[in-house]
Amino acid sequence: MIPRHARAIALSLLPVISLPAGAAPSGWRQLNLPVGVTSISRDAYDLHMLAIYVCILIGIAVFGAMIYAMINFRKSKGAVADRTLTHSTKAEVIWTAIPAFILIFLAWQTVPALIHIEDTRDSDMTIRITGYQWKWHYEYMGEGVSFYSALGERSNTARQRNAALRPAEVDHYLLEVDEVLVLPVGAKIRYLISANDVIHAWWVPELGIKRDAIPGFINEGWFRIDQPGTYRGQCAELCGKDHGFMPIVVEALPPEEFAAWLAARRPAAQAALASSQP
Ligand SMILES: [Cu+2]
Prior knowledge:
Number of domains: 2
Mean pLDDT: 89
Radius of gyration: 25 Å
Strand order of the largest sheet: 3-2-1-5-8
Largest sheet: 5 strands, mixed
Bound molecules: copper (II) ion
Protein backbone atom coordinates (compact mmCIF):
# COMPACT_ATOMS: atom_id res chain seq x y z
CA MET A 1 0.00 0.00 0.00
CA ILE A 2 2.79 2.38 0.93
CA PRO A 3 5.33 3.21 -1.78
CA ARG A 4 8.36 0.93 -1.62
CA HIS A 5 10.76 3.84 -1.23
CA ALA A 6 8.87 5.06 1.85
CA ARG A 7 9.24 1.62 3.42
CA ALA A 8 12.93 1.49 2.46
CA ILE A 9 13.53 4.89 4.04
CA ALA A 10 11.63 3.82 7.15
CA LEU A 11 13.68 0.65 7.49
CA SER A 12 17.02 2.36 6.90
CA LEU A 13 16.38 5.18 9.37
CA LEU A 14 15.58 3.01 12.34
CA PRO A 15 17.20 -0.39 11.81
CA VAL A 16 17.31 -1.19 15.51
CA ILE A 17 13.54 -1.66 15.66
CA SER A 18 12.89 -3.04 12.19
CA LEU A 19 12.65 -6.79 11.91
CA PRO A 20 12.80 -9.40 9.20
CA ALA A 21 9.32 -10.80 8.67
CA GLY A 22 8.49 -13.72 10.90
CA ALA A 23 11.31 -13.25 13.38
CA ALA A 24 10.21 -13.22 17.01
CA PRO A 25 11.01 -9.82 18.50
CA SER A 26 13.71 -9.78 21.18
CA GLY A 27 15.47 -7.15 23.28
CA TRP A 28 14.80 -3.57 22.24
CA ARG A 29 12.86 -4.80 19.23
CA GLN A 30 10.05 -5.84 21.52
CA LEU A 31 9.27 -2.14 21.87
CA ASN A 32 8.00 -1.96 18.31
CA LEU A 33 5.26 -3.71 16.36
CA PRO A 34 6.39 -6.95 14.72
CA VAL A 35 6.51 -6.81 10.92
CA GLY A 36 4.55 -10.06 10.93
CA VAL A 37 3.82 -12.61 8.23
CA THR A 38 0.70 -11.26 6.50
CA SER A 39 0.09 -8.36 4.13
CA ILE A 40 -2.22 -6.91 6.79
CA SER A 41 0.51 -6.95 9.44
CA ARG A 42 2.99 -5.36 7.02
CA ASP A 43 0.49 -2.64 6.08
CA ALA A 44 -0.07 -1.92 9.76
CA TYR A 45 3.69 -1.85 10.39
CA ASP A 46 4.37 0.46 7.45
CA LEU A 47 1.62 2.88 8.45
CA HIS A 48 2.83 2.81 12.04
CA MET A 49 6.42 3.61 10.98
CA LEU A 50 5.26 6.33 8.60
CA ALA A 51 3.25 7.98 11.39
CA ILE A 52 6.22 7.71 13.75
CA TYR A 53 8.52 9.45 11.25
CA VAL A 54 5.97 12.20 10.70
CA CYS A 55 5.80 12.64 14.49
CA ILE A 56 9.61 12.72 14.73
CA LEU A 57 9.85 15.39 12.01
CA ILE A 58 7.17 17.49 13.72
CA GLY A 59 8.97 17.07 17.04
CA ILE A 60 12.30 18.18 15.54
CA ALA A 61 10.67 21.21 13.89
CA VAL A 62 8.72 22.33 16.96
CA PHE A 63 11.43 21.71 19.55
CA GLY A 64 14.09 23.08 17.17
CA ALA A 65 12.16 26.35 16.83
CA MET A 66 11.62 26.51 20.60
CA ILE A 67 15.27 25.88 21.44
CA TYR A 68 16.45 28.33 18.77
CA ALA A 69 14.13 31.00 20.15
CA MET A 70 15.18 30.34 23.75
CA ILE A 71 18.86 30.65 22.86
CA ASN A 72 18.71 33.61 20.51
CA PHE A 73 15.89 35.72 21.91
CA ARG A 74 16.69 35.68 25.61
CA LYS A 75 16.04 38.64 27.88
CA SER A 76 19.71 38.55 28.87
CA LYS A 77 20.59 39.19 25.23
CA GLY A 78 18.39 42.24 25.22
CA ALA A 79 15.38 40.74 23.48
CA VAL A 80 12.11 42.61 24.06
CA ALA A 81 8.72 41.02 23.47
CA ASP A 82 6.64 42.61 20.70
CA ARG A 83 3.38 43.58 22.39
CA THR A 84 1.88 45.26 19.35
CA LEU A 85 1.42 42.14 17.22
CA THR A 86 -2.02 40.63 17.91
CA HIS A 87 -2.86 38.90 14.67
CA SER A 88 -1.09 37.47 11.64
CA THR A 89 -3.26 36.05 8.89
CA LYS A 90 -0.22 34.65 7.13
CA ALA A 91 0.88 32.72 10.25
CA GLU A 92 -2.65 31.37 10.82
CA VAL A 93 -2.96 30.17 7.26
CA ILE A 94 0.41 28.42 7.52
CA TRP A 95 -0.27 26.71 10.85
CA THR A 96 -3.66 25.52 9.59
CA ALA A 97 -2.53 24.42 6.15
CA ILE A 98 0.50 22.38 7.23
CA PRO A 99 -1.36 20.13 9.75
CA ALA A 100 -4.24 19.75 7.28
CA PHE A 101 -1.77 18.67 4.61
CA ILE A 102 -0.15 16.17 7.01
CA LEU A 103 -3.55 14.67 7.91
CA ILE A 104 -4.58 14.41 4.27
CA PHE A 105 -1.25 12.75 3.46
CA LEU A 106 -1.72 10.18 6.27
CA ALA A 107 -5.33 9.51 5.21
CA TRP A 108 -4.21 9.05 1.60
CA GLN A 109 -1.77 6.38 2.79
CA THR A 110 -4.20 4.75 5.22
CA VAL A 111 -7.47 4.42 3.33
CA PRO A 112 -6.26 1.88 0.72
CA ALA A 113 -4.83 -0.27 3.55
CA LEU A 114 -8.12 -0.14 5.47
CA ILE A 115 -10.09 -1.13 2.37
CA HIS A 116 -7.63 -3.97 1.75
CA ILE A 117 -7.97 -5.20 5.36
CA GLU A 118 -11.78 -5.23 5.17
CA ASP A 119 -12.02 -6.96 1.80
CA THR A 120 -13.05 -10.53 2.67
CA ARG A 121 -14.13 -11.47 -0.86
CA ASP A 122 -12.75 -14.50 -2.70
CA SER A 123 -11.56 -16.30 0.40
CA ASP A 124 -10.28 -19.87 0.10
CA MET A 125 -11.67 -21.07 3.44
CA THR A 126 -13.56 -19.83 6.46
CA ILE A 127 -12.95 -20.52 10.12
CA ARG A 128 -15.32 -19.66 12.92
CA ILE A 129 -13.71 -18.47 16.13
CA THR A 130 -15.73 -18.37 19.34
CA GLY A 131 -14.47 -17.06 22.65
CA TYR A 132 -15.44 -18.73 25.93
CA GLN A 133 -14.43 -18.16 29.53
CA TRP A 134 -11.60 -19.18 29.19
CA LYS A 135 -10.75 -20.95 25.98
CA TRP A 136 -11.27 -20.66 22.25
CA HIS A 137 -13.37 -22.78 19.92
CA TYR A 138 -12.40 -23.17 16.27
CA GLU A 139 -14.59 -24.53 13.50
CA TYR A 140 -13.45 -25.15 9.94
CA MET A 141 -16.66 -24.20 8.16
CA GLY A 142 -18.03 -26.87 5.83
CA GLU A 143 -15.37 -29.40 6.83
CA GLY A 144 -17.03 -30.90 9.90
CA VAL A 145 -13.91 -30.21 11.94
CA SER A 146 -14.08 -28.23 15.16
CA PHE A 147 -12.38 -28.25 18.55
CA TYR A 148 -11.69 -26.28 21.70
CA SER A 149 -8.26 -24.82 22.34
CA ALA A 150 -7.36 -24.23 25.99
CA LEU A 151 -4.24 -23.38 27.96
CA GLY A 152 -1.55 -26.08 27.72
CA GLU A 153 -1.30 -28.61 30.53
CA ARG A 154 2.21 -27.61 31.62
CA SER A 155 1.40 -23.89 31.79
CA ASN A 156 -1.81 -24.69 33.62
CA THR A 157 0.10 -26.73 36.19
CA ALA A 158 2.89 -24.19 36.62
CA ARG A 159 0.49 -21.32 37.20
CA GLN A 160 -1.04 -22.96 40.29
CA ARG A 161 0.16 -21.86 43.69
CA ASN A 162 2.85 -24.15 45.18
CA ALA A 163 3.05 -26.23 42.00
CA ALA A 164 6.08 -28.48 41.61
CA LEU A 165 6.55 -27.16 38.07
CA ARG A 166 7.88 -23.62 37.85
CA PRO A 167 6.90 -21.15 35.10
CA ALA A 168 10.55 -20.75 34.07
CA GLU A 169 10.66 -24.48 33.28
CA VAL A 170 7.78 -24.26 30.80
CA ASP A 171 8.52 -23.39 27.17
CA HIS A 172 6.23 -20.59 26.03
CA TYR A 173 4.69 -20.29 29.48
CA LEU A 174 1.04 -19.11 29.16
CA LEU A 175 1.50 -19.00 25.38
CA GLU A 176 0.94 -22.70 24.64
CA VAL A 177 -2.33 -24.57 24.13
CA ASP A 178 -3.57 -28.15 24.08
CA GLU A 179 -4.92 -27.93 20.50
CA VAL A 180 -3.31 -25.50 18.06
CA LEU A 181 -5.21 -23.82 15.24
CA VAL A 182 -3.66 -25.36 12.12
CA LEU A 183 -3.93 -23.27 8.95
CA PRO A 184 -2.48 -23.41 5.42
CA VAL A 185 0.16 -21.03 4.13
CA GLY A 186 -0.82 -18.98 1.08
CA ALA A 187 -4.61 -19.34 1.40
CA LYS A 188 -6.91 -16.39 1.94
CA ILE A 189 -8.43 -17.33 5.28
CA ARG A 190 -11.64 -15.59 6.24
CA TYR A 191 -12.63 -15.67 9.88
CA LEU A 192 -15.94 -15.09 11.60
CA ILE A 193 -15.57 -14.26 15.26
CA SER A 194 -18.01 -14.11 18.15
CA ALA A 195 -18.21 -15.06 21.83
CA ASN A 196 -20.52 -17.20 23.90
CA ASP A 197 -20.40 -15.42 27.27
CA VAL A 198 -18.50 -12.14 27.61
CA ILE A 199 -16.39 -10.03 25.25
CA HIS A 200 -13.04 -11.54 24.31
CA ALA A 201 -10.57 -10.48 21.62
CA TRP A 202 -8.52 -12.68 19.30
CA TRP A 203 -5.06 -11.15 19.05
CA VAL A 204 -2.11 -12.61 17.15
CA PRO A 205 0.49 -9.88 16.58
CA GLU A 206 2.44 -11.72 13.85
CA LEU A 207 -0.77 -12.02 11.79
CA GLY A 208 -1.69 -8.36 12.34
CA ILE A 209 -5.06 -9.43 13.76
CA LYS A 210 -6.75 -8.11 16.89
CA ARG A 211 -10.48 -8.47 16.62
CA ASP A 212 -13.16 -8.34 19.30
CA ALA A 213 -15.30 -11.43 19.93
CA ILE A 214 -18.64 -10.04 21.09
CA PRO A 215 -21.66 -12.14 22.18
CA GLY A 216 -24.54 -11.64 19.73
CA PHE A 217 -22.33 -10.08 17.05
CA ILE A 218 -20.25 -11.67 14.32
CA ASN A 219 -17.13 -9.78 13.32
CA GLU A 220 -15.34 -10.81 10.17
CA GLY A 221 -11.92 -10.39 8.64
CA TRP A 222 -9.22 -12.23 6.75
CA PHE A 223 -5.53 -12.89 6.54
CA ARG A 224 -3.09 -14.78 4.33
CA ILE A 225 -0.04 -16.26 6.05
CA ASP A 226 3.14 -16.07 3.96
CA GLN A 227 5.49 -18.29 5.94
CA PRO A 228 5.09 -21.63 7.71
CA GLY A 229 5.60 -21.29 11.43
CA THR A 230 4.03 -21.05 14.85
CA TYR A 231 2.43 -17.74 15.78
CA ARG A 232 1.30 -17.01 19.30
CA GLY A 233 -1.21 -14.60 20.75
CA GLN A 234 -3.59 -14.03 23.61
CA CYS A 235 -7.07 -12.88 24.48
CA ALA A 236 -6.81 -9.09 24.46
CA GLU A 237 -10.04 -8.15 26.21
CA LEU A 238 -10.27 -8.30 29.97
CA CYS A 239 -12.78 -11.15 30.20
CA GLY A 240 -12.72 -12.43 33.76
CA LYS A 241 -10.42 -13.97 36.30
CA ASP A 242 -8.67 -16.30 33.84
CA HIS A 243 -8.32 -13.72 31.07
CA GLY A 244 -4.55 -14.21 31.13
CA PHE A 245 -4.90 -17.96 30.63
CA MET A 246 -6.56 -18.32 27.22
CA PRO A 247 -3.71 -18.04 24.73
CA ILE A 248 -3.86 -18.57 20.97
CA VAL A 249 -1.43 -20.68 18.96
CA VAL A 250 -1.62 -20.76 15.16
CA GLU A 251 0.47 -23.27 13.26
CA ALA A 252 0.85 -22.45 9.58
CA LEU A 253 1.62 -25.47 7.38
CA PRO A 254 2.35 -25.83 3.66
CA PRO A 255 -0.93 -26.53 1.79
CA GLU A 256 -0.30 -30.27 1.27
CA GLU A 257 0.50 -30.83 4.94
CA PHE A 258 -2.55 -28.83 5.96
CA ALA A 259 -4.78 -30.90 3.62
CA ALA A 260 -3.43 -34.10 5.18
CA TRP A 261 -4.00 -32.74 8.69
CA LEU A 262 -7.56 -31.68 7.84
CA ALA A 263 -8.37 -35.03 6.22
CA ALA A 264 -7.21 -36.85 9.34
CA ARG A 265 -9.41 -34.62 11.51
CA ARG A 266 -12.60 -35.13 9.48
CA PRO A 267 -15.36 -37.07 11.28
CA ALA A 268 -15.11 -40.10 8.96
CA ALA A 269 -11.36 -40.39 9.58
CA GLN A 270 -11.84 -39.98 13.32
CA ALA A 271 -14.60 -42.65 13.34
CA ALA A 272 -12.40 -45.06 11.39
CA LEU A 273 -9.57 -44.43 13.82
CA ALA A 274 -11.84 -45.07 16.81
CA SER A 275 -13.32 -48.29 15.35
CA SER A 276 -9.87 -49.66 14.47
CA GLN A 277 -8.75 -49.38 18.07
CA PRO A 278 -9.53 -52.31 20.39
CU1 LIG B 1 -10.96 -13.66 26.89
